Amino acid sequence: MSDAIAVIDDLRDESEELDSLVAELSDEEWAVATPAPGWTIAHQIAHLTWTDGVAVTAATDPGAFGAEVEAALAAPESFVDEAAGAAVASSSPAELLRRWRAGRERLQEVLREAVPGTRIPWYGPPMSLASMATARLMETWAHGQDVADALGVVRAPAERLRHVARIGVRARDYAYVVRGATPPGEAFRVELTSPGGGLIAFGPEGAAQRVTGPLLDFCLLVTRRAHRDDLALRAVGAEADGWLDIAQAFAGLPGAGRAPRGDGGARGDRGAGGGRREGESEVAANPLRSEGT
What we know:
disordered C terminus, single chain, alpha+beta, two-stranded antiparallel ribbon, 8 strands
């Protein structure tokens, strides 16, 4: 199985898990506010629907996608909110759900059928098939976390979160650049414990700067869905410690992020925290908002 197909399979599974959270909601529940200011559960699903559709356009009609990029550049602070808001205003929850299901299935079909080695234009650099699938998985999981938090649901972490962690590690330097700072010159070691108890590691074994902790907690941190104080992540070295204060797995301004819960303890593996939407776009380059898009 190719790397791209494996990630697409995980994207499918992540989407189905979120689908199970919203499929039986009443119209009133679709209107419940999520931790993303101004966004209901309907806005979260509308946003995913819109982004999946744009990804299909990028993969199948690069010229039309160029017009999407121009529209985004013309209104960089509002185009994400406007797209979600327009969809919610014009569609019933049942229609939003139908469109999301059809759109994500179409995207997965396009990615599976693409010629190996294809690179898809995006809001940042063009992406490989595996990178596009990874970016969509990360956004689906992060927005799904907002939905779960709104509903008071604690989701069991899955092994596929390793894809989200990988983006978070690869985006290390970007977190400094977006803040006008110089990234550290040395590589970091990141060691994360998977839900099954295995080790997921990035970076050289002998690195002096190290981060350790649960895979779930690292993913919550880099998508800014939980405050560092509520997570069981540990840093060795001043630079690694500083990185945990600014880490983000998406492109664009970081936003305020979620406030500490203030309950006096680190989260560890206990489940979802509070948060907001992601950033204007993932480093793997998806258009999101941070404070939590």
